[in-house]
Structure formats: structure tokens, C-alpha cells
Amino acid sequence: MLxxxxxxSVSPVFVGRTDELGVLNDxxxxxxxxxxxxxxxxxxxxxxxxxxxxxxxxxxAREGAVVACGGCVEIGADGLPFAPFSTALRALRRTLPEELxxxxxxxxxxxxxxxxxxxxxxxxxxxxxxxxxxxxELTVRLLERVAADRTVVVVLxxxxxxxxxxxxxxxxxxxxxxxxxxxxxASYRADDIHRxxxxxxxxxxxxxxxxxxxxxxxxxxxxxxxxQIAGILAQEPDxxxxxxxxARSDGNAFFVEExxxxxxxxxxxxxxxxxxxxxxxxxxxxxxxxxxVARIVAEGGSTVEYPLLAAVARLCEDDLIxxxxxxxxxxxxxxxxxxxxxxxxxxxxxxxxxxxxxxxERSRFNRxxxxxxxxxxxxxxxxxxxxxxxxxxxxxHDAAKAxxxxxxAAAEARRRHAHSEQLGLLERAMELWDVAPEAVxxxxxxxxxxxxxxxxxxxxxxxxxxxxxLMAEAAVAGRLGGMRERALKICKKALRLLEDEDDPLRxxxxxxxxxxxxxxLARGDGWQELAKAQELVxxxxxxxxxxxxLSNVAAWCMLHEPGPGALAAAERAVQYxxxxxxxxxxxxxxxxxxxxxLDSGDxxxxxxxxxxxxxHVMRHGASLVMGRLHINLPSHLESVGRSREAVAILREGVExxxxxxxxxxxxxxxxxxxxxxxxxxxWDEAAEAGRKVLGVGLIGKAxxxxxxxxxxxxxxxxxxxxxxxxxxxxxxxxxxxxxxxQHSLPLVATEIxxxxxxxxxxxxxxALTQALDAGxxxxxxxxxxxxxxxxAIAEADARGLPAAGPGRAETVERIRTAAKxxxxxxxxxxxxxxxxxxxxxxxxxxxxxxxxxxxxxxFEPLERPYDLARVRHRLAEALLTSGTxxxxxxxxxxxxxxxxxxxDHLGARPLADAVALxxxxxxxxxxxxxxxxxxxxxxxxxxxxxxxxxxxxxRLVAAGRSNRQIAEELFISPKTASVHVSNILAKLDVSGRxxxxxxxxxxxxxxxxxxAAQAAG
Length: 1017
Description:
The relative contact order is 0.04. This protein starts with 17 loop residues before the first helix and ends with a helix. The chain contains 50 helices and 10 strands. The longest helix has 21 residues, at 886-906. Helix 4 packs across helix 6 and helix 23 (484-498) packs antiparallel against helix 24 (504-520). Strands 2-5-6-1-7 form a 5-stranded parallel sheet. By secondary structure, it is mainly alpha-helical.
């Protein structure tokens, strides 16, 4: 029998930790007020992390919070995908069944990947680029919804064992947590985080988030050790004993417990100084049956279910319960939180017991676990079954049994979007392949084929799985799971194996994968690999691989080398995809084709092609194409100046990305929305959209787009320091390995603007020269015109400066020559062409009102309030420079008033300053100007983007006229009047005619007597 003190080896008195508990309680209070909290709790093994969490959880529960705990599970050397989140969600479901069901409503099939109890997980696509991101987004929203009306504490323990998928989900949760009364506490063993530990980079990343607080739990002081021993012994300890235990434990709470109990039983002199012996001494004091059960539990994983333990231990129930009672009474084992199994009270003891097993003993235990689980799969939760069975057979060293179960576990991991774990299992399968019997391999069948990887060409029910098929699955799993280095090594090895085989389709497929990995790893632009794939499929009969290669070539060319070759590749990709029935490849290729048609000048036909793809996707669904569609279509609309149309689709895309958890799509959509909103003069919203791109947390081109938009906005608002910072950030995100014109040219335009604003004209010229030397590929006019305009303005503004004279003529001529090579097929670029031409005249000292009047005329129909304000400023300057009569001065005054109104509304300080300076020099009074903070300045209809006809219609709407009355007065049809009214409501962002009329009166858009007189009539 174990003595009384052994039941008290855990001190009933909570010792110390006042500061740490204060931080946790403060987080609880903040969360209760609606501010979600994220905390990391680190400390060495045995220092007291779990005890601190238990005390905090108990206090939180007393305050009415719901507490859900989950721990990372270690099975041998393997972690279960999403284990802590699954366990925590299961606890929430037990406590709040109705609330969790309501929060998960409509997404049960997707969330069942984390919590199988919600239903059968949807099969989905075999390999879904956005699947993991979608699951992450839905999980965060689920937690926020559950915590909307109550405080919820989620505890995730033992992150040092976390699988890659759990780490990714935790990072996403901490980055994107914005709402709900939620506290998330994640703990980890700090002394396990060596330099190469996979948790180390995550901790560094989370440390940079201002929303994450980190608590480092230190060791006890001597006084605290004394209080802990007193609690264990239920009496004041001898000071000499405290000194000795403190010296030997070095303040580690768990070691203090072990040493105190050992000293109480007189084992002091028998203890060795090795940690393993210290941890094993109390296990060895258990009855033999209890020791044997402890050894079995140690090899079963972090937690072992009681029915499974009973099947493996092979003891009669009474003997098993007696053995467990002894182990629990000695505080070696504990009942698991769910009450359905057992675990070691401290993982250090489990590791010591496991390490003490003999090799044959370990294999025998694992075999028994595997056999018991095969005989009764219900012994463990459904979400853990395949992974644990694979692990047990693998550690039993039975390749014949391990290989099939490992492949089943890999398929299960893929279904849950746990691609990193899938890769590890597939690598294990490749390790087992040669040692597994041939008869076993002959019975294996492909589950399906990955992406466009060619199937065997015969009946998959009768054709065995091949080693190369495993490599294909592993390559895609590595790419999707972020393990790109490992995926690239697999591709290279596969291609070496295929050198001895006549299998061009599979080789082409691997070259395509290698291209994508090369780009994502910043090793090159991927063209060399794509060209090799294209060469391999050339001349072969149509196939899905062939169509995929052509589609990727077309997409690559659209970004890097748009032109006739890209257009031909897209057309062939569509043709081949149709021939082989590869619908998603066809839709992707058609999307590329439409964009290339538009860039080549066939605007309406290109847009029609893309809208047809949109209609098909919205009717039939195609998640991958859906995401790309809501990025590319509005981008092309923006490229021809149809910003408002683009915004409508982008807002639709934001909602679709949010609903489906399309993380990458969301980032790109926000970036494009920022661009279109800036063009429409909605700069505050544009800045918010740009920040949301960065808030998604992706590293790479999408974040580069967000930073690029913010850099351009900061430049227009006169914040050169912020613009410089965002420009550097954008370049860091884009990198130097894959310079696509759509990314590099806008950055050069911003660089020129910053240099000119800081008086560094020579640097601006150097940036221009580098861009012009590289040239503008066909279809890049949307990026080329703003760049040339920035350079022309820089030259014109610097005229008269001594340093600007040398080289000006050559620079102006280069800009003029480059402008002749750029297409101007859309009205917005026709306007830019006229603007660049006028700025070049200004750089040469020619400032003619007629020239600038023509520029203003072409900009007036466009919804570009900032650009219109800028050219109005230049026209006013030309009028004041060349004319002296009162009509010219009056016209210039009105133009400057309108330009100043727009500049104040947008916050465009450099333009506002330029307008004020010109007015001061000309001795003009711009009366009735509002403060910059006011929403609507004098003539705010101009700043709101209303055309002259729309202003006329709004004046009559404000007077209470119907559409028919408006039509009669303006000599237009009622239908046209209705269209104008709809456009006005959209531009004013109001819901109806009454609200529009009220806004017009409030902003004094029209003389007060006019509407009143008309209304009276």
C-alpha cells in the first residue's frame, strides 16, 4: 500500500505565480469586455505550467466563463493533426451543444474535419489549394460566434508536440482573431525548443504580433519551494531539508514534488543524480502490475482510452482497476479530462518510462495496440483511428501491416487538409515501400490521382499503386502544406527516376510542379521548368497534363510576356481541356484567354469571355476558379477604367472569400479593391482595404500588392516617409526572383514620385531609365501610362532648377518615344496619353490653355476625381500664365476651387498646397472653402464624381421630381432618367431618393432658392 503522503505529492496550496496569474486574469477581464485575447505560456518541463492553467481555469469558471482544454497528442514521434483544437471543440460541444451547433450551422461538413461529431466531412476536391485556409477561417469564425455572448477560454497545451497543421491553425487564429469574448492560452515546453524545432519560427512570428502576450514561467525561489513542501507534507519542513531539495531541484516544481516524496520515504541516499532515475524511482515503487500498466500507457500515446488499455493489458478487469488505482494514487497516472482514459500526470515521467522499455518490449506493446484497434476500431475517437493505427504498426516494425495503414492515414490527413502530416506519412510509406512484401504492394490501389497527374492508363481497380504515384502525392502535399523544400527534393528525385522510363506525361507533370515550387521558393521565375514540360508534351495526343501545361504557360506569359504567344497558348489550352473533359482547367484557361484578349485591344470580347466563365462558376461551382475569377475579372475591368463595375465584383469576392475561407483569394481581392477605390476617390476605404491585405498575414505577392497600394496612397497624400516604408515592404514581399510587370512597374512609378517629391530628380531619371530599358510588354499600358506620367510630371515640376537642365531634353524625348509604343484603347488611357503629352509640353516650357482644356475635357466623363482635380489645377495655371482678362481669371478661380475641394475631400495635401500657392501668387480668393476634415466642400458634387448631367438630375430629385418629370424637363427618356438616378444613389452611397435629396440639401449642392421655387410650383 502507498502511504498517505503519496496522495498529497501535489501541494494543495497554490504557490507563487502572482504576476503570471494577474496577466491571465487581466486577459479574462479584457475578453469579457469584448476584446479577444491571445497568450503564450512558456516554461521548462515540470515548472508548473499545467498547475497555473488549472488555477486560472478554475477562477475563470467561477466568473462564469466556459473553459475548453485541448492538448497536443504525441503518438511515438507523431502528432495528431489538429488534436488540441479537436479536443477543445469537443469540450465546447459537451458544454454548449446548442450554441456550438448554431455557430457551425451551414458549415458542418467542412468543420467535421476538425470535429467528426458534427457530421460526415465533405469529400471536396482531392487536392484543394484553398482547403486548409477555408478550414482555418471557418474555425476562427466558429470560435468567435460561440464567444459572441459569453466569455470562452480555450486552452491549448503542449505546443512543443504540435503537428504542422496545428501550428498553422494557431498562427492563423492569433493573427486574425478580432471579435468575441474569447481568451486563447497556448502553452509549450520552452526547454524543448531547440534551434531547429519547428515551433521556434512560429514563436518568433507570434512575438511580432502586438495582440499576443507571452508569459515566461520561471522556477520557484527557496521560499516558494518551502511553501510547496509544506503543502505536500501538511507540516512545516525542516529548513535543512528545504535547502537540500531546493539545491537539487533548482526550483523546478515537479522535481520538488518527486524529491519531497522520496525524502519522506527515506529514499534520499538511494537516488541518483540522473534525471531518468529520479523520474523512475516512484514508478519502480509501484506494485509490479501497476508498473506494467504504466509501461503500456507510456507506449500508447499521450492519452490511452480505458477500453483500449484493457484490450492491450490483457488483465482481468479487477486486476487492471487495482493496478490503475495504485498508479493514480501515487500520482503517476491521471484520468484524462474527458474521463474516458488515462495519461501520465507529467510527460517527463512518460518519456522516462518509454525510454526504459526494451526494444522487443516496445514492439510487442505497439503490436498489441494495433491488433486491438484493428479488432475494434471504436476503441478510439474516429478522427484519431487511422493515424494511431498507422503509428502502432510502424513502431511494431511490421512493414506488411504498416504500409497499407500508413497510406490510409495519409488519405485521411489529406481529407482534413492536414497536408504537412500527409507528407510525413507518405514519406514514411516511401521508406516502407522496399521492405514491404511484393504481395502487399501488389494489393495496393491508388485512391485517386492528384491534380492533373496522369492515372495509370488502365483500370485503377486492378492496377497496383506505383512508387511514382506516392511521390506525386507527396510533392503536392508538400507544396500545399508549405514544405516546399521537401516537395522540390521529391520532384527532383522523381524526375531522376523517370529518366530511365518512357513516360513523358508524368515527367511533364513533375516539371510543372517543379516550376511552381521554384517560383514559390524564390529560385527563379519557373519558366525553364515550364518550357521543359511543354517540350515533353509537344506532339502527344491531347491529355489533361497537356492541357494543364498549356494553361500554366498561358498564365505565366500573361504575367511576364503577354502578347500573341500567350494568346495562342491560352487558346490551345482551352481546346485541349475541352477535348479531354478537364472542366476546371478549361475555365482557368478561358479566364486567362479573356484577359489576354482584353490586353490585346479586344476589350468587349475579352470581358464577355470572362463574364461567361463567371456565370458558369456561379451556377455550377468551382472553388479554385471562383477565387481566381474574383481577382482577375475586376483587375481587367480596372485596367480599362471601369472601376465601379470592378468594385461591385470585388465586394462580391470579399464575401465569397470570407464565406468559403479562401485566404489567398481574400488577400488579392482586398488588394484589387484598394486600387479601384483609390481610382474612384474613396481613399479612406482604399487605405483600409490595403491594410486588410497585410492583415491576412500572407507572405509574398499578395502582401506586396497591399503594401504597393498603401505606398501609392501615402505618396498622393504627401506622406513621403510612409510611402518609402511601404515601397520597401512591397519590394521585400515581391522579391527579385520573379519580376512581373504588373508588380514592378507600379513600384517604379511610386519610386519616381517619391524621388521627385524629395527633390532627387536624378534618382527619378535613373528609375525611369531602368524601366524604359526593360521596355513595356504588350498589354501593360495600365502600368506604363502612370509611370510615364510620373516621370513627365517630375521633369515639368523641376523645370527651372539648375540641376534639372542637363539631360532634360533626352529624358523628355525618351518619355515621348515610349508613349508612342503604348496602347491607349480605353478612354482612361486616351486621357492619360493627352495628360502625358501636356506635361511634356510643360517640361519644355510650353503651357497652352487649349492643350490643358482638352485634357480636362477627356477626364470629365471619367470617374477619376483626383486625376480630374490635378488637370484642372494645371488648366488654371495655364489660364493664369497666358491670359490676363477677367474671364480667364474667373474660370481659373472656379477650376482651383473645384480642385481644392477634391484635394481637401481626399486628403491630397500636395495638391491642396499647390492649389493654394497658385491662388496666392495670382491674388485669387478661393472663398467659402471648408475645413479639410469636412466631408463635402464647395462644389462637392465634383468631388463625389457626379457628371454634369447627374448634377442636373440630382437637382430635380432634391426638388421632389419623379423620373417622368425629370425626363420631361431634361428632354430625356424616363428610362434614362431612372439610370441616372440609380448611378447617383450608388455614388452618394444612399439607399433612396429621399436620402439623396436630404444629402443634397445638407451639403448645399444647389442654391437654396432654386429647389424651393420648383417645389412650390
